[in-house]
Amino acid sequence: MNALSRTGWAIIIIVIVLIAIGGGYWWYASSQQGGKGATTTTKKPVKVAVLFDVGGRGDLSFNDMAYLGAQRAAKDLGVEVKYLTPKSTSDMIPLLKQLASSKQYKILVLIGFLWTDALNKTADQFPDQKFALIDSTTGVTRPNEVDILFREQEVGALIGVIASGMAYELNGSTIGAVAGMSIPPLWKFHIGYLFGAKYFEMKTNKTVNFLWQYTGTFGDPQKGYQTATQLLQQGAKVLYGLAGLTHIGMFDAVIDWNEKGYGKALAIGEDASQEWYNPKYIPVSGAKRVDVAVYTAIKMAVQGPWKGGIHTLGLKEGGVGIWDLDGVRYFAQIAYNESKTKLTPDQIVNIVKQQREKYIKPYVWNIVHELEQKIKSGQIVFKTPLTEDEYNSIIQQLQQGNLNAALAKGHV
Amino acid sequence: MASNEYAVEMRGIVKVYPDGVVALKGVDFLVKRGEIHGLLGENGAGKTTLMRILYGEIKPTRGEIRVFGRRVSFRGPWDAIRQGIGMVYQHFTLVPAFTVKENLYLSLLSVNPKARLGDAVSKADKIAEETGLRIPYDEIVEELPIGVQQRVEIIKALLRDAKILILDEPTSVLTPIEVRDLFKALRKLRDMGITIIFITHKLKEVKEITDRVTVLRKGKLVGTVETGKVDVKTLARMMVQREVVFKIEKKPAKPGEVVLEAKDIHVIDEEGVERVKGISFQLRKGEILGVAGVQGNGQRELAEALAGIRRVSKGRIILGGKDITGYNAYQRYMKGLAYVPDSRGTGLVPDMNLVENTALTNLYRILGWARRIKWDRAVEITSRVIRELEVVAPSLYAPIKHLSGGNQQKIMVGREIVREPDVFIVAEPTQGLDVAATEFIRKTLLRLRDNGKAILLISTDLDEVLQLSDRLAVIYEGQFLAMGRPEEFTIEKLGLIMGGVRE
Amino acid sequence: MSEALGSWFKGFLEQVRIRKRQYLLGALEIVLSALTGFLVAALILYFIGYDPWYIFEIMLTYGFSDLGYLGTRAAPLIMTGLAFSIPLLAGVFNIGGESQLYMGALLGLYVAYVTHNVWLGLIAGFIAGALWGGLIAALRVYRGINEVITAIMLNWTAYYTIIYIILVYLPNPKQSHLSVQIPVSEMISYGETFALAVVGALIAYFILYYTDIGYKIRVSGANPRSAVYAGFSPKTAIMASMLLGGGLAGYGGTLIIAGVTGSIDTTMSTLYGLGFTGIGVGLLGRNHPIGIIFSGLFFAGLIIGGQWVELLTGAPPYVTDTITGIIVIALSMPYAYRLLVNYMGRLGKK
User: Given a cut of 80, is residue C3 above it in pLDDT?
Assistant: First the structure.
């Protein structure tokens, strides 16, 4: 009985203390809020919302690039950008509905293919809300929705030329790629990469062996490591990573291959600049500029002209390309800040510069620039396969040396 | 001073537990240097409490302790270990998954953090050399026989330079050959100058191994004697002598037909030790068969085998003419058997309320369609238990742990009574209860007998079995050493048989 | 009938009267834990430079404003909470709710897709989860393998198996990152999803507190020695609790497919983590099915509200994750501590 009342007292005292603290805070907060209200009434900028993929920022890839593009839009276009990371795909539909019905945001920019289904199921209910879907398409044309895709063939082709050139510098003639799943963007990479290799053959009369391997996953570094090791054993000198997290394993395989003395090999990254991961063995990365896509979408919504449907970005629009040293430095800085690398951005840029000079000879750059020019000027345009059969037939013809099979317009 | 003479001096030790139980009522305990000193007594005599105080595990309420003449006050066993006291429990404190070597190293580390694995082995080798206690170093402890594990325990204590070794019922888990080896080693240890305190209830062993013996009874010192100067009869009398506290009115029994029969049952426990070694008996309607004995002689295993909780390794159990050996407990309860276990920790679910606890053995009576529980029926039964056994409880829905021990016991007995079974197996029904509750439970048992129920009463409380039994069996090491009418046993004879001495 | 109801109600009032002190203490404990949690969270927020009051306001208002969203978000959490709690009542640590949910979602999706009948899908989901949970239980009961280890390994087995099956056997022809879809016309509404979760919890409540097997499960968990004494087989109790718990997790997996997404995506982001969160839901719900309904809603609200914090304040998601974590830990800690002490005590006695 005695002990009980003692606990009782203890509880009462704790409650009083907590209430006192809470009350004190309440008072403090309300006094603060008065001051805050005064500053926010001056101007109301246009608001836009960028909705990340599940997982959000810190991926040093899609989401971080989206953030980069949105920040640029905020600066250049004077918009206020808000960000949101959904916890899972099941949150996407309700979030879209809540955001759209709030009518607060000029445009909702959705990053990545996971949003496709959610958007498809909500876009029609909110005709006044503009949506942009990056790197995927709902397959439906709506006046309030733009789907921004990339012409992956164009970057693939440039990388194909560079990879072939690098292979010859390593005393080999085989290039390869570790790919994720057999889905349309990867089909386009495949066509471009193979086209680039054949283009190199045509220009230099040096033969290039071409290896392409799907791993079936974008999230399994171990699988990437195994696949890459197999390709290296088959004589590949340069491997192109097209499998998200999976090709981080490919990077490791290439690093080990060199450091354990099995042979010499190089790796090429994709999407973001990935040179920072190991600048010595990853001298170059293909760019898929999600930042440009996000910026483009926001600009369309804010400044116009707005036109619903699919928009594609390629070399001409700066949507794809080869990362220059500024880009390398930018991602090296992020990686350095997040302690993902010990090298400083300067060191990374220096190593990359040296390695590029060593392995990408001027004659290769000449071919690259020539091809780039043809693409940018619209002299040649790549086909975009709509079905798997079409994709397979293009690849088959390319392998037989028919470069024009990959082109919708123009010929080489 | 006499301080040179004694290794341990405990004077005027009083221990009152927080729940008010007085375990020791001012005990003097003196152990000479380099002797083997027996500590003899029944259950609840306070042997273990006294030794736990010496080992620093619990603190005495009052009293003075000196070790080798120095006054000590231990905060915990680590203090006692530093003063050279080692203890070997009945249940070993080895890490089962470790090897012997690793266990020894672990214990050495606790006194010397800088010790190396090699030190443990070399030191243990030396001890083994001197004592003849040979142990394998690289075996996993749990794969070793119990006797060897015990040797490891002893070496473990000696590794920490124990000068005083306390052994708590060391022979209870051993085979006769292992006992012989142990005694040989103990004598060698004594010759090396190590003082040994040997807790037991086995008279034979006391005679065989000890130099002097202290007898405790109900928390009081009966006396300390030199073993050579007394015979086992005297020791037995010292251990069990008592004045009867109160007498219960008892009508003569009218035994009827046989309802429960055990035929040569054997039980092996989880550790592979045979705990019941061939017990047979017949139990008739309207009689109480008491089973007396010191705790740990197979009583629990016998009761649980009869109730169907444990499997018998050999033998048959017949209830009302039907062989129920293959039945599980639930089926046996349905067939008219009831078991009141020796521990409320087994019989009751502390966090559940009275109704849910009553349902435990009455479950088959309250099931409705699709095995739905009819709680209103359970409430009725519980109300009946409360009414008939005069249980005091705040409510039917109070967690049973909020009830007093006596009321908990009444629920345990009452929920069996209301099922109206033919046979009751009742173990330690009054353990830890006050006088009023004890008397109530005992009277209830007699009433049941008079109503023609058959009761097997297993108790370590001699008063209880002597008062209530119509026939009495004495259990020792898994066997009935004697069976007869209670009047045939003198207290002295009972003490001898309980201590394993057959005449 | 009305008489039975009346007596039940009287019993209920009696319960409340008798356990008033217990209930009061329980409520006090929750209030105190919540205050402590919010206080610690507020201090952390304050020191890393955010306005705690504003963030709590967002979490609580946005989290609990859209009831449909709240209900569907809570539905699978309630089920995985039960998947953790029911076996725990029998003394088994089921941390395999995650994979039981996966299996239920997969089979539920497949059956609903093939038969165009969501109800059959829900039944299939229950069965798949139950079998998966039963596997863990069987390994524990018949082979003595620790359920925690089995569950962890099976979680990953299920994870990769599902990705493989979706990619190879059930790919969506239109969207390569998705599995086949349940036709939109067959899907259930948000309200129905939540209602079905509540029905599941109520059935669990009935089984646990009004049937033979539920009673045996509870006795086995609360005092295994008593269960043996009463002649209940602990094996049966463990098996039954895992079948029921796993089944409910699987049912929850199907609920989220049938109610929200209609398909599983190859990154598993629809399902990932629901089972693990269920552990918190179960503890916070004090292992009681009715409590778990409320704790599921509370969790769901915090998760939903947390997403808005980023939008409205710019705080990165890990800030809100930390806050949610602290609050949840504070709320379940006293109970989890008691459970642990109980569990360790039992281990020690053996």
Answer: no
- Domain ends where: A95, A126, A150? A150
| All partners of chain C with 3 or more CB pairs under 8 angstroms | A, B
Domain boundary among A123, A150, A177: A150
**Which residues does chain A have within 8 Å of residue C188's beta carbon, measured at their own beta carbons?**
none
The verdict on A259 and A240 lying in the same domain is: yes
CA distance A13 to A25: 18
pLDDT tens, position by position, B288-341? 999 988 878 888 899 999 999 999 999 999 998 889 998 989 999 999 899 999
Is residue A18 situated within a structural domain?
Answer: no
- Domains for chain B: give ranges and CATH numbers: 2-240 (3.40.50.300), 248-336+423-434+452-503 (3.40.50.300), 345-420 (no CATH)
Between CA C195 and CA C258 the distance in angstroms is: 13
Q: Which chains touch A (3 or more CB pairs under 8 A)?
A: C
Residue A158 and residue A102 share a domain: no
C310 near A CB under 8 A: yes
Instruction: Return the closest-CA partner of residue B185 out of B123, B146, B131, B125.
Output: B131
C230/B331 CB distance under 8 A: no
Helix (H/G/I), strand (E/B), else coil: C122? helix
For the segment(s) C21-349, the CATH number from 1.10.3470, 3.30.870, 1.10.3430, 1.10.600 is 1.10.3470
Peptide linkage before C317 cis (omega within 30 of 0): no
Tokens matching residue B43: 């259950």
What's the rounded Cα separation, in Å, for the pair C169 and C174? 15
Residue of B nearest to C5 (CA): B376
Rounded-to-integer distance, Cα C114 and Cα C137, Å? 30
Average pLDDT over residues C50-63: 88
Q: Indicate which of B397, B408, B415, B416 best probes the interface with C, i.e. most C CBs within 10 Å of its own CB.
A: B397
> Which chain B residues are Cβ-neighbours of C14 within 8 angstroms?
395-397
Query: What is the H or E stretch that residue A148 is in?
Result: strand A145-150
B124/chain C closest Cα distance in angstroms: 28
CATH number of the domain encompassing residue A88: 3.40.50.2300
Q: Is A4 exposed, middle or buried (0-12, 13-18, 19+ CB in 10 A)?
A: exposed
Chain A: residue whose CA lies nearest to C271: A88
- Which of C28, C43, C165, C176 would best serve as a mutation to test chain A binding (most A beta carbons within 10 A)? C176
Mutation for testing the C interface, residue in B93, B337, B349 having most C CBs under 10 Å: B349
Average pLDDT over residues A32-52: 65
Residues B434-466: pLDDT tens digits? 777 788 888 889 999 999 899 999 988 887 888
**Domain containing residue A69:** 47-150
Please tell me whether residues A349 and A227 are part of one structural domain: yes
Query: Cβ separation of C215 and B373 shorter than 8 Å?
Result: yes
Q: What residues contact residue C251 under an 8 Å CB cut-off, 6+ apart?
A: C79, C104, C108, C122, C125, C126, C129, C200
Q: Indicate whether A173 and A200 sit together in one domain.
A: yes
Q: Tell me what pLDDT residue A287 has.
A: 92
In a domain, A392, yes or no: yes
Cβ contact, residue pair B329, C211, below 8 Å = no
Q: How confident is the model at residue A35 (pLDDT cuts 50, 70, 90)?
A: very low
- Could you tell me which chain A residue has the CA closest to the CA of C179? A117
Neighbours of C17 (CB within 10 A): 10
Same-domain pairing of A186 and A125: no
ipTM: 0.84
> How many Å lie between the alpha carbon of A381 and the closest alpha carbon of chain C?
25
Q: Are B179 and B198 in contact (CB under 8 A)?
A: no
Q: Do C230 and B361 touch (CB under 8 A)?
A: yes
**How far off is chain B from C227, nearest CA to CA, in Å?**
8
